[in-house]
Automatic annotation (TrEMBL):
This is Transcriptional activator HlyU.
Amino acid sequence: MSLLARLFGKAPAKTQDPILHKDCRIFPEPQKAPGGFRVAARIEKDFDGQTRTHNLIRSDIHASLDDATEASLAKARLAIDQLGDTIFS
């Protein structure tokens, strides 16, 4: 990461394979926030050949990117478990 990116708080872009959970694809995408990283994830699922997306953003902030990534994954799994397909409505 460049010096300017570190000074201005830009996290390096990570492209990673999705984590599968109950026919959904979870992409943990923590967002840079004051004091750390905000819990966020993109959840996708295919319905009749079309991909629907839900962007999950929570107010939780973690100091490290790794902790925020793990929390984002856990919150996304919980949302899928509790809301099922209605998350895409």
